[in-house]
Automatic annotation (TrEMBL):
<keyword id="KW-0378">Hydrolase</keyword>
<dbReference type="GO" id="GO:0016787">
    <property type="term" value="F:hydrolase activity"/>
</dbReference>
<dbReference type="InterPro" id="IPR051262">
    <property type="entry name" value="SMP-30/CGR1_Lactonase"/>
</dbReference>
<feature type="active site" description="Proton donor/acceptor">
    <location>
        <position position="196"/>
    </location>
</feature>
<dbReference type="GO" id="GO:0046872">
    <property type="term" value="F:metal ion binding"/>
</dbReference>
<dbReference type="Pfam" id="PF08450">
    <property type="entry name" value="SGL"/>
</dbReference>
<dbReference type="InterPro" id="IPR013658">
    <property type="entry name" value="SGL"/>
</dbReference>
<keyword id="KW-0862">Zinc</keyword>
<feature type="binding site">
    <location>
        <position position="17"/>
    </location>
    <ligand>
        <name>a divalent metal cation</name>
    </ligand>
</feature>
<feature type="domain" description="SMP-30/Gluconolactonase/LRE-like region">
    <location>
        <begin position="15"/>
        <end position="253"/>
    </location>
</feature>
<dbReference type="InterPro" id="IPR011042">
    <property type="entry name" value="6-blade_b-propeller_TolB-like"/>
</dbReference>
<keyword id="KW-0479">Metal-binding</keyword>
<dbReference type="InterPro" id="IPR005511">
    <property type="entry name" value="SMP-30"/>
</dbReference>
<feature type="binding site">
    <location>
        <position position="196"/>
    </location>
    <ligand>
        <name>a divalent metal cation</name>
    </ligand>
</feature>
<protein>
    <submittedName>
        <fullName>Gluconolactonase</fullName>
    </submittedName>
</protein>
<feature type="binding site">
    <location>
        <position position="150"/>
    </location>
    <ligand>
        <name>a divalent metal cation</name>
    </ligand>
</feature>
Length: 288
């Protein structure tokens, strides 16, 4: 396999999260910049939403409406027809930390993580959980006791949720029942270090961000590594497959520490690199 070099796609960002390809555009939360952006194929951006309490995970309902987590006030927000944001679900009664990453299925059900503690306020590490928000905004806890839950994605057939348990250095597979709950859980892969965002391809490969190894790694079920892409001193934190035939891997890389994040004193860039195995469309993507 030829190792291609990532090329700069966009810069001038603060801290990127929640990357998704939808509607022919790349979408991303600038978490510490308090903005949701979308980008065309040459990297020109536009502001899609302003989220004062920090956006993170992104997704799209069957109607095409954007939904984003609002971290600090523990809410899920939905974009309305007039372009404003409305409360989709208040999760404060279920969460102990911040709203993090998110994946939305074809029925409009949102899976999202609660990291378990409020790191920017200096709280000590504590177990987090996975939540399920139904299309009507009702919410429940699916699993507790997780060590910094982070990146997640739903498989192309809609039957599995693939999820990174960051501090436990494991990628899990949850078989989804018809009502959206977990039918079973199995280990997809153990990994070499702490984990962040991910994206899936049509062969079932997981591109997994490994910020403290300064690389993104492609895992197959069972743990075989097929490719590594290094980023020097920068930390990759989120990724998505998109662009022409969905063969471009977009990666948000950041220069940060936890202490700097608490001061909004970080920088981020997006890089793009061609890959051999394409991604697939999110549910309801009419531009697919």
């Amino acid at each position: 396999m030829v190792q291609r070099q990532p090329e700069l796609f966009a810069d001038g960002l603060v801290f990127g999260e929640g990357m998704r390809w939808y509607g022919g555009r790349l979408w991303m939360s600038d978490m510490l910049g308090r903005k949701v952006y979308s980008f065309d194929e040459v990297g020109q951006r536009r502001i899609e939403a302003t989220v004062p309490e920090r956006p993170n995970g992104l997704g799209f309902l069957p109607s095409g409406a954007l939904v984003t987590t609002s971290m600090a006030d523990q809410k899920l927000l939905r974009m309305t027809s007039d372009g404003s944001l409305a409360e989709h679900a208040d999760l404060s009664h279920l969460m102990t930390g911040y709203c993090g990453d998110m994946a939305v299925d074809a029925q409009g059900r949102a899976y999202l993580d609660d990291v378990g503690f409020r790191v920017f306020e200096g709280e000590p590490p504590a177990p987090g959980r996975l939540l399920l928000v139904q299309a009507d905004g009702s919410a429940s806890v699916l699993e507790s006791g997780l060590q910094f839950p982070n990146g997640m994605a739903i498989t192309q057939d809609g039957k599995e949720l693939i999820f990174a348990e960051g501090r436990n250095r494991k990628i899990w597979s949850y078989e989804l029942a018809d009502d959206g709950t977990f039918a079973s859980k199995s280990l997809f892969s153990e990994t070499e270090d702490l984990l962040d965002g991910m994206t899936l391809d049509v062969e079932g490969g997981v591109w997994q961000c490994m910020p403290y190894r300064n690389e993104i790694v492609r895992y197959l079920r069972g743990g075989r590594i097929t490719q590594r892409i290094p980023f020097g001193a920068l930390k990759p934190v989120a990724c998505a497959l998109g662009g022409h035939e969905r063969r471009i891997l977009y990666v948000v890389v950041c220069d940060y520490s936890i202490e700097r994040m608490a001061r909004d004193d970080t920088t981020a860039q997006i890089f793009a690199v061609d890959v051999d195995v394409p991604g697939f469309a999110l549910p309801g993507d009419r531009a697919a």
